[in-house]
């Protein structure tokens, strides 16, 4: 493998001839051997969209020759399509507020643009990573803008997946509307309800998540592109400052807008904290629903066994015939990770100092990981768990008709004291059914008992 010689303010280095990255990337790669985590692919795509918008704006205003701008924009299009990502080699966690990632992008785009024009990599006198690809830009406006672009795109995708999950839960609400079951409070028998009502409650919680996630796009749409180093726009022409965000809107097809206060948008990250809290709320709902389903599907013989979850894989290397609720368990773990990432987002945001937040790489990785994880989790949960749930109506009806919880529906007939005595009698006589007890201990006739314990009466709204 051959090498080319590149230089920076610290000296010269050999860079592999075939590498699209350059000396700045190489130094950052060596300086930050931290996590082994790659820069998020959606952030790479968003950075390419930003770079393309900047090249477009500079070309329109005459600051970049058309031939160079066209080559740069073609290189950006290739990265947007997923090419050359393997040349973004810097660690996702790094010092410098994302400068290493920005320099890595600049060098890859420059060297690919050089190839497009028929030049060798490293011929920076033709297209330079900083003088041309990074023209009128700073890491401090490019990186936060790209993070918002990537986040908005993922929020739109997540919102769509949440809507589908809501629909799947509503389908189960309808399918199970006539399935009578025993509700439980503090894991003890409470009162009768329909299984459909349980899924209806889940659907309502997910509907709130859907609305919150959709509306959170508004929190991230204002970007600081054009603000350069601290938001004052130093080094950038005023015409460029007003044009570049419009170019980004065209490139990304997203509802981005120039922030009215570029200094604020450069140094403050509270909007990510706010949206991360919304993601944590969604993770909380997913966790609760998945945990409920694990309980309701426990068994199949010695548990609640009110429902069956789809069987997706064998559950044990020794316990034959065992099927575990692995999809729900995976949902639980993903939710925990999102909750942990929310803490990281808060820590990174609060540790910004004066005119810049140096901890943007950590914030970006945690935030985008949560978005991606939730999108994948919601899809998996719907397809591999929710849509295939089956109810066991005979078992749930039997549990209801043999539970003291039904006595709550008879309070107006029996009175609290008599109902309490019957409940105690039922508890000490586990082989006695509620109907048998009512026949033996009350003056109610069989027809009255049947009417009082009818499913329609037990789950009616009010009495």
Folded structure, characterized:
The chain has 463 residues and is mostly helical. The chain folds into three domains: 133 residues, Orthogonal Bundle (Fumarase C, Chain B, domain 1); 216 residues, Fumarase C, Chain A, domain 2 (Up-down Bundle); 57 residues, Ribonucleotide Reductase Protein R1, domain 1. 59% of the residues lie in helices and 7% in strands. The protein is built from 18 helices and eight strands. The strands form four sheets. A two-stranded antiparallel sheet has the order 1-2. The protein has a two-stranded antiparallel sheet with strand order 3-4. Strands 5-6 form a two-stranded parallel sheet. Helix 8 links the parallel strand 5 and strand 6. Helix 7 packs antiparallel against helix 10. The protein is elongated, with a radius of gyration of 30 Å. The mean pLDDT is 94.
């Amino acid at each position: 493998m051959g090498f080319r010689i590149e230089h920076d303010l610290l000296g010269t280095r050999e860079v592999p001839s075939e590498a699209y990255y350059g000396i700045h990337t190489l130094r950052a790669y060596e300086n930050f051997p931290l996590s082994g985590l790659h820069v998020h692919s959606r952030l790479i795509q968003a950075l390419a969209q930003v770079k393309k918008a900047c090249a477009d704006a500079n070309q329109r205003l005459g600051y970049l020759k058309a031939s160079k701008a066209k080559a740069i924009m073609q290189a950006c299009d290739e990265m947007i399509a997923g090419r050359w990502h393997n040349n973004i080699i810097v660690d996702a966690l790094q010092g410098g507020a994302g400068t290493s990632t920005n320099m890595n992008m600049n060098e890859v785009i420059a060297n690919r643009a050089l190839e497009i024009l028929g030049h060798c990599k490293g011929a920076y006198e033709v297209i330079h990573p900083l003088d041309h690809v990074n023209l009128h830009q700073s890491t401090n406006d490019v990186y936060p803008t790209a993070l918002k672009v990537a986040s908005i795109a993922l929020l739109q995708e997540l919102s769509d997946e949440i809507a589908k999950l809501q629909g799947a839960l509503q389908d189960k609400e309808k399918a199970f509307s006539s399935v009578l079951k025993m509700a439980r409070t503090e894991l003890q028998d409470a009162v009768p309800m329909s299984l459909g009502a349980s899924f209806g409650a889940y659907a309502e919680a997910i509907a709130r998540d859907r609305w919150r996630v959709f509306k959170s796009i508004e929190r991230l749409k204002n970007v600081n592109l054009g603000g350069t180093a601290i938001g004052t726009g130093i080094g950038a022409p005023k015409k460029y400052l007003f044009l570049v965000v419009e170019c980004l809107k065209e490139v990304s097809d997203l509802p981005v807008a120039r922030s009215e206060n570029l200094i604020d948008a450069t140094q403050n990250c509270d909007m990510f904290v706010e949206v991360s809290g919304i993601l944590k709320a969604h993770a909380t709902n997913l966790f609760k629903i998945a945990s409920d389903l694990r309980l309701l599907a426990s068994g199949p013989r010695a548990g609640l066994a009110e429902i069956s979850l789809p069987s997706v894989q064998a559950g044990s290397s020794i316990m034959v015939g065992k099927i575990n609720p692995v999809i729900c368990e995976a949902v639980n773990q993903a939710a925990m990770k999102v909750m942990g990432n929310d803490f990281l987002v808060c820590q990174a945001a609060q540790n910004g100092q004066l005119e810049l937040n140096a901890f943007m790489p950590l914030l970006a990785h945690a935030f985008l990981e949560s978005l991606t994880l939730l999108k994948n989790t919601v899809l998996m949960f719907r397809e591999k768990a929710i849509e295939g749930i089956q109810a066991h109506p005979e078992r749930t009806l039997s549990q209801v008709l043999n539970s003291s919880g039904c006595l709550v529906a008879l309070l107006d007939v029996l009175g609290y004291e008599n109902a309490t005595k019957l409940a105690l009698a039922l508890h000490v006589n586990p082989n006695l059914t509620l109907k048998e007890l009512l026949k033996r201990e009350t003056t109610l006739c069989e027809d009255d008992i049947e009417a009082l314990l009818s499913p329609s009466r037990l789950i009616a709204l009010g009495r």
